[in-house]
Amino acid sequence: MTDLLTGSLMMGWTTLAEYLAEHVVTCLIPAFFIAGGIAAFIKKDAIMKYFSPDAPKAVAYGIASVSGTVLAVCSCTILPMFAGLFKRGSGIGPAITFVYAGPAINILAVVYTAKVLGFDLGLARAVFAIILAIAIGLIMAALFRSDDEATKKRMAAMPQAPTGDEERPKWIVPLFFILLIGILIVGTAAIDWMIKFPIIYALTLGVAYLLIYFFERDEVTEWGWETWDLTKKIFPILLIGTFALGMLAFFLPPETFAPYFGESTLQANLLASFVGTILYMPTLLEVPVIGTTFGYTSGMMAQGPALALLLSGPTVSLPSLLVISRIMGVKKTVVYAVIVIIFSALAGFGYGLIMG
């Protein structure tokens, strides 16, 4: 018994140490700063006001499908926003697209997926999340068209967000994010540190210059607080979860799941999508779950089921479905869950065929 406990603890520490060494400095820290900047410098109201049933579909669904990159939220954070959208008169289609895409295309999660599980899978996650979010939203809007008719009556009373004039040039904020993204890309690139460090240093000086000369002190403080808020909410869970998954892998090695997820069959993708729908995985934790527990990084899990779980797991879980049912009713929630399972499985199956 003592040997088992010691072995599991060692496995947990080893798994955690590997993730910390390989991914924290070059991947997660820059990503947290980018997410904090998004939360501080891009106004959420500018996004949410375009979700009306009368808004052009290209605008409403387009903005809703990429909102996760702007809001940088996880499933636990997206639900209150989802409820707020319904109260403020959003159409059911854009709202569903928003609640699905928000966690799925989270900038932190996409970057972490690409770094740990491979660029191909990270890119597939981002692309399929957008496509599925729009498709699922359109289907829900078509099935429950009467809801939008009732919502239109409340739109006139919806308060408009005040708009202020920007004092700084419009190119400053985009350049700020370009420099931060440059730090992230260079930091994760497989190049020698003698080349990497000077480039990161120059980019960091550029960020500091913009912050000093073009941003108010309150804005910089808000950026810092937003970054810290995201870090303290997500990073401890990631550390604890990664350690726990390492211990779990000692008792349930990846070989255990190979018969179920080892091939990209339709059945395997459906099972992975269903498992993702039931499990609750905090933001970023789905990456070590797939990589370590299910054995994707060791070749025990096929690419299709991995994508299916990535598309269903972060966006839908049993706890989130219970909350969503209180917002829009049990019938719509069940339909939404079934569509997510089917579409995630089909996306994984298609991806598996493409990648061979």
Find the structural class using helix and strand composition.
mainly alpha
- Count of separate structural domains: 2
Mean pLDDT: 80
Please outline the major beta sheet.
none
Distance between the termini: 43 Å
Structure notes:
By secondary structure, the chain is an all-alpha fold. It has two domains: 2-155 and 215-355, no CATH class; 169-208. The protein is 78% helix and 0% strand. It is built from 17 helices and no strands. The protein starts with a helix and ends with a helix.
Question: What does the secondary structure layout of this molecule look like, with pairings?
Answer:
Elements: H1 2-41, H2 45-48, H3 57-71, H4 75-87, H5 92-104, H6 107-117, H7 119-143, H8 145-155, H9 172-188, H10 193-214, H11 217-251, H12 258-261, H13 266-278, H14 286-293, H15 303-312, H16 318-328, H17 330-355
Helix pairs in contact: 1-6, 1-9, 1-11, 3-5, 3-7, 4-5, 4-16, 5-7, 6-7, 6-14, 7-15, 7-17, 9-10, 11-14, 13-15, 13-17, 15-17, 16-17
Give the tags.
transmembrane helix, single chain, 356 residues, 2 domains, 78% helix, mainly alpha, Permease, 17 helices, cell membrane
